[in-house]
Design brief:
single chain, alpha/beta, Aspartate Aminotransferase, domain 1, Aspartate Aminotransferase, domain 2, 2 domains, 7-stranded mixed β-sheet, 4-stranded mixed β-sheet, 13 helices, binds pyridoxal-5'-phosphate, pyridoxal phosphate
């Protein structure tokens, strides 16, 4: 990819902004730019400006852009068999299900169901929770304040952001949100709890890890009270934190996990992986999806997993994360308070509420990061990130910080 423009779509900025405002629903903020192509950790917009992308489509583009292995896999699958209904199966679908059971530790006794997004995976997980609640006569499902689980009506009810739910009135009832402390967990748990669903690191909340020991205690309490422990690994999963899944750092066994984002490396796919204890809750006819598990998505995801393994990208995520934490601290900027998170899911906490402005400055300089909230910059680069990209990131981010000093 060259630095000068080789844009095929010469589009006037004012014109596309107007077209966006006219054609698109108002749910999203105006786009930051119009992107055209990408390669590795870099993307280019329609004006030919290049950006080092440390957001990766929000932790989706695990192999970066246009990775040859990914391109080959999706092209081959498109040319062979892209979609079949769930009246049939394919080698790709079965292969991916078995691989997910293996890397999650759910093993032979676990089961998988596919969907097309994170929210859809969590809808399936919520069905497990509702089935268990209904069957046991328990009353409550627990989730965490500031947790994020998606934008469907079911997952919005799980999401711990009241402002997102309020415009819609009454959603699924009986979901209680707890603060993310061990004290709130102890106080909130009881025999009336059917399920607890949580993220190991709250990504949307500004990359906030659970307190030390939280997941282990949650496992104990869930077991003691006959509740399901469901871990939303949609942002933390598929190698991003330096393990296949975030819960694996704590050595617990969940009842179910959900995955999406990085799994397809850019092709839409989500999955619910149930462990032995929850594997038979969903019975015939209780869930389904037309596109879920089709060979285009599952074949591509299989190639993503194989490439993560072949190139040692989980170890890379762990090492690069550590390197980034040290190098960001090494900038010595008074604007940086701390770096939270693990592996390649990091939140740079700022000492002033200037994340939005800092993000805009970074974009101007050619760096894409995300303002998770007013005082946190979130970075989630592709898992293929190497020395050259880290050096470039530190240089650009240092310049951005200095512009606001
Ligand atoms: C992104 C995300 C979701 C929602 O996934 P979609 O694919 O946007 O539906 C759910 N949970 C977590 C933790 C996420 O990061």
């Amino acid at each position: 990819m060259t630095r000068t423009t080789d844009s095929t779509t010469s589009i006037d900025t004012t014109a596309w902004r107007q077209r966006y405002a006219d054609a698109m629903m108002r749910s999203f903020a105006p786009p930051l730019t119009m992107l055209e192509r990408g390669e590795g950790c870099w993307v280019q917009d329609v004006d030919g400006k290049r950006y080092l992308d440390f957001l990766a489509g929000i932790a989706v583009n695990a192999l970066g852009y246009a990775h040859p292995v990914w391109v080959e896999a999706i092209s081959r699958q498109a040319a062979t068999l892209a979609h079949v209904s769930n009246y049939f199966t394919t080698p790709q679908q079965l292969g991916l299900a078995e691989r997910l059971l293996q890397i999650s530790g759910a093993g032979d006794a676990g089961r998988v169901i596919f969907g097309n997004s994170g929210a859809e995976a969590n809808e399936a997980a919520l069905k497990l929770a509702l089935l268990h609640r209904h069957a046991t006569g328990k009353a409550r499902i627990l989730a965490l304040n500031a947790g994020f689980h998606g934008r469907t009506t079911g997952t919005m009810a799980l999401t711990g952001k009241p402002a997102q739910r309020e415009p819609f009135g009454e959603l699924i009832q009986g979901i209680d949100h707890l603060d993310s402390t061990l004290e709130a967990l102890e106080a909130g748990f009881g025999d009336d709890v059917a399920a607890l669903i949580l993220e190991p690191i709250k990504g949307e909340a500004g990359v906030r890890p659970l307190p030390e020991g939280y997941l282990r205690r949650a496992r104990e309490l869930a077991t003691e009270h006959g509740a399901l422990l469901i871990v939303d690994e949609i942002q933390t999963g598929i190698g991003r934190t330096g393990a296949w899944f975030g819960f694996q750092h704590d050595g617990i066994v969940p009842d179910a996990i959900t995955v999406a984002k990085g799994l397809g490396g850019g092709v839409p796919i989500g999955a619910l992986i149930a462990f032995e204890s929850a594997a038979d809750l969903l019975q015939a006819g209780m869930h389904g999806s037309t596109f879920g598990g089709n060979p285009l998505a599952t074949g591509t995801a299989l190639a993503v997993l194989a490439e993560i393994e072949r190139s040692g990208l989980i170890a890379n995520a762990a090492a690069r994360g550590q390197q980034l934490i040290e190098r960001i601290a090494g900038i010595g900027s008074p604007l940086v308070e701390e770096v939270r998170g693990r592996g390649l899911l990091l939140g740079i906490a700022l000492t002033a509420p200037i994340a939005t402005e800092l993000r805009a400055t970074a974009q101007h300089l050619g760096l894409i990061v995300n303002a998770a909230n007013e005082s946190t910059i979130r970075i989630a680069p592709p898992l293929i990130v190497g020395d050259a990209e880290i050096d470039e990131f530190i240089a650009l981010f240092t310049d951005a910080l200095e512009a606001h000093a």
